[in-house]
Amino acid sequence: MRKKMKTCFALIVISILAMLCLANLKQFLVLFEQKRVEGIEDSSDFAEIESMFRENISGRNILVNTYGAYQKAIKHSIVGNFEYVADEYGILHMINDKSNTDVKNFTKGLVKLKNYADEKELPFVYVQAPNREIVNENNAAIREFNVDDILETRIIEELQNEEISVLDLRTQLQVSERTFELTDLFLHTDLHMKTDAEIWMADQLAEYLDDKFDIKLNNPEYLSDMTYFDKKTYQMVGNYARTYGEYFVGSDDFDIYHPRFETSFQYYIPGKEESYKNGNFDNVVLNGYEDIEYNQYTYWVTNYGHFMEPYYTYINNNQSSGKFLIITDSIAYRAISQLLLTTQKITVLDPRFFGDTDYVKIALQDDYDAVIVWQGCYLLDAPFILK
Amino acid sequence: MVFSSTVFLFIFLPLVLAGYYLLDRKFRNYFLVLVSLFFYAWGEPKFIFVMIFSIVVNYFFALIINKWHDNKIIVNGIMAIMLVVNIGVLFVFKYSAFVVSNLNRLLNTNMTVPKIALPIGISFFTFQAISYVIDIKRGNGEVQKNPLNVGLYIAFFPQLIAGPIVRYETIAKQIQSRKEDWGKFCEGIERFAIGLSKKVLLSNALAIVADRSFNFVNDDELSVLMAWLGSICYTLQIFYDFSGYSDMAIGLGKMFGFSFKENFNFPYMATSITDFWRRWHISLSSWFRDYVYIPLGGSRCKKSRMLFNLFVVWILTGIWHGASWNFIFWGLFYYLLLVFEKIMKISNKLVSKTYRNCYRIFTLLMINFGWVLFRAENMSSALTYLKKMFGLCDNAWVDVKTIYIFKDNIVLLLVSVLCSVSVGNFIVNRIKTEKGKILFDLCKYFIIIILFMISICSIASSSYNPFIYFNF
Lengths: 387, 472
Known about the structure:
The complex is a heterodimer.
Chain A: H1 2-38, H2 43-55, H3 60-73, E1 78-79, E2 84-86, E3 92-94, H4 104-119, E4 124-128, H5 140-145, H6 148-161, E5 165-168, H7 169-175, H8 195-213, E6 229-236, E7 252-259, E8 265-269, E9 272-279, H9 281-285, E10 311-316, E11 323-328, H10 333-339, E12 345-349, H11 359-363, E13 370-375
Parallel strand pairs in A: 4-5, 4-13, 11-12, 11-13
Antiparallel strand pairs in A: 1-2, 2-3, 6-7, 8-9, 8-10, 10-12
Helix pairs in contact in A: 1-2, 8-10
Chain B: H1 6-22, H2 25-43, H3 48-67, H4 72-107, H5 122-137, H6 147-155, H7 157-160, H8 168-177, H9 182-215, H10 224-255, H11 273-279, H12 282-296, H13 303-321, H14 325-343, H15 346-349, H16 353-375, H17 379-389, H18 400-408, H19 410-419, H20 423-430, H21 434-461
């Protein structure tokens, strides 16, 4: 009997190995051949083959999800090699616990940017997006694992010393009206905020521009009254959850609001004629993810904005005022898309992709009503001004 | 290529097993040599020539020694050349940069420090090659007339890059006349699956906490509690990393009909430092015992000579692990502890249970401190880390993050500690009935399969796969 059990055990293991081999051999040979054609010289080439193979193995999602379930079963909340940590609400936080990060270069860049804006006599606003640690005010460990809040406060203090206007949405969260709980401020499995929270940010900015600079946006109800929209919800496993899959903290509801009213937009990248698009909100502002095959790993965040483009412009053909130059990363993609419904023109600059070009100077050759820098805490290394 | 990788598990191993058992018996050794060389080349293609050089020269050394075994002058001459060549190759790749940079410091010179990459597993296969020639000289095994069989012994992929160091005399007969059987094959699979689980689920997870501590050694934030947590995690990590790999090597050997000797015997149950080194990396300590310590005279000589012999062995043990002062000091650390035990005749004093348990705790503490020396980047970091373990750097005793990390890993730590003692044997020895044994086996195989599958899931999802003994 014991011999039979031993045999069964061995056969099960052999079967598992055989199945894995049969399911992945072709893929491996293809990758190996591709690399062989490019040239295999040293261990880094083999490491690349291994890495690519691992990323593309058959049924990888199932394996990742199973591993995440195992991590949840052993009550482990730190993900990978101290990449993320899950709090008691099931929200993943990136771990970046070096609080002595220097913010001076960043704030100096902003001061230069303000000087550019001052030359054009344009209002300059720094918008500080909320951080996810706000949910864990009483959890000292989580707040120590991520120092965004400390760095953001440091940045704001420096900017206020330079008399730069700051809209601190972290404090606004405590005082303004909102339709969501703090635990629904951010996507649980991703860096970005939930759509309702981003729309709230846009609404707060509109109020701030009105109060501080008397800049009035048209149809401000589009930023607060969702009855003007059809909401569609998709399941999404965000970037934070890729290591442990969808069973570790679950997946997120990602909402997309489609305007019920008529819209007409243009989009272009200055200098690139072939980039031009003309159409409604769905065709121009969204990137069409709903029209192609999608699943829970579809990254709905980039259904908005244009990741990796340093400089692009939207025009709302149905509005006659409100032009903004917004310097931001993906933290405000949906907020900008919503804001666009109430403005004539928004030009977006993403400093992460500036390269050697001073896009700020180029962009400021156009007319705007204000220059806005809008970030969470991830543009600290971005070169705003190159001189 | 490492065993705990998708390429090895999903592609290499299944294809090699299939190829091996489909081939006629007379071609199997050649097949194993070829796949072993491919396995080695996968990690670093250019170093395959170092491996082939080692196989070829040692093949000829052994042949000459076997032919002229009655001629002492030729035999001794060839042995001297063999040692110079093998250790010379090891020296060039592993120690030349260390020696030159230290000479520069000592003599205030500016010699160019060579930048030579370290061939994977060179310490292991060099020692195996030396073992082959010495065992031929001693008459412990027949010389291999076929160079491919020498290649198989030196380059066989299961133990090529991280041991165990297989002695030629233990494997000589198996090269040509081993018999693969289903029972052995099943044992091999079981052993491999256990080793993989130890490596992936325990060692890799412990490494995450250990690395965090040791990487933050110069940080003000490293509290006393975190320093201890890190050192304990490393103590467990290195055990599961290395013993897991040895289990996989032994298991793989069995799958191909080979029987390798055990390399670990629950080392953290040691009653003394002497006992620890009878349980830890047994293949290395016995290699030094049989090829260095005993030829120097061992302990059957004057006390001063014995102490000198021990000193040589432990300096070499430290140096074998790496070209860095902290490895040398790690070797010396154990030398001092072993001398202490010999001089104080500790084994005679551990009569009462209380003394034995107290000394056991002392032994574990010393082992833990030894691992700090072993793991640190250099001596300065090692000393700083040890100081921080006792709050001697004005570091805090405890901090919020460490408590969180400790709580988060409590299950892992408990399981790791439990598995490092012979719980399995404890249970098995108490089962008297056949029904009980069947039930135990059923549970055991069920758990191993689950752990094996989770290990595969882990390997597929994570790129974090540190491997300590890969560096040797």
